[in-house]
Amino acid sequence: MARKKRTSQVLEKAARRAASINSINPNLDLGNGLTLPAFLTLIETMRTRENIYNTSLSNLDKLYLEMLDTERELADMAEHMLLGVATRYGKSSVEYGMAGGVPKNQRRKKLRGESLASSSQEPLFVANVDTNTNGKNVPVTN
Fold first, then answer.
1. What letter would DSSP give residue 91?
2. Distance CA 7, CA 53 (A)
């Protein structure tokens, strides 16, 4: 996903304004440093910086994609390294555990229907009680 490049509405408006002012007088000087050449210089500075910014975003996108490719390659190699240790020493070996795997003889066998979350949850059945009686749990009768 490429980052969105920036376009400046202020830059576009200033460029149109400079073109219009140029038709009045190409060397217009309004005093206090407000000259058409200074205005055009600032417009070009902004255009240059916007181009540098957008180019940097493109380069950053390229670096990000290269990093993701390298990360995938690294994950594959890490898996292959572990499988290589398993092939050489076996999945029940100490070496397999040292390489980051869980040795076969140390794996916990999960019983049918058992889950880790169910043991820490509230009971599944809650009695139908009325708690609006000054803290006393009184069964609700219908």
1. T
2. 10
| Number of other CB atoms surrounding residue 10 within 10 Å | 9
| Angstrom distance (rounded) from CA 54 to CA 97 | 48
pLDDT at 131 over 70: no
Q: What is the pLDDT of residues 48-104, one digit of tens each?
A: 999 999 999 999 999 999 999 999 999 999 999 999 999 999 999 999 999 999 888
Count of all residues that appear for the chain in the document: 142
| d(C-alpha 123, C-alpha 67), whole Å | 47
34 burial (CB, 10 Å; 0-12 / 13-18 / 19+) is exposed
- The answer to whether the CB of 43 falls within 8 A of the CB of 11 is yes
Task: Quote the CA–CA distance of 38 and 128 in Å, as a whole number.
Answer: 80
d(CA 54, CA 65): 17
- The 8-class DSSP code of residue 121 comes to S
pTM of the prediction?
A: 0.59
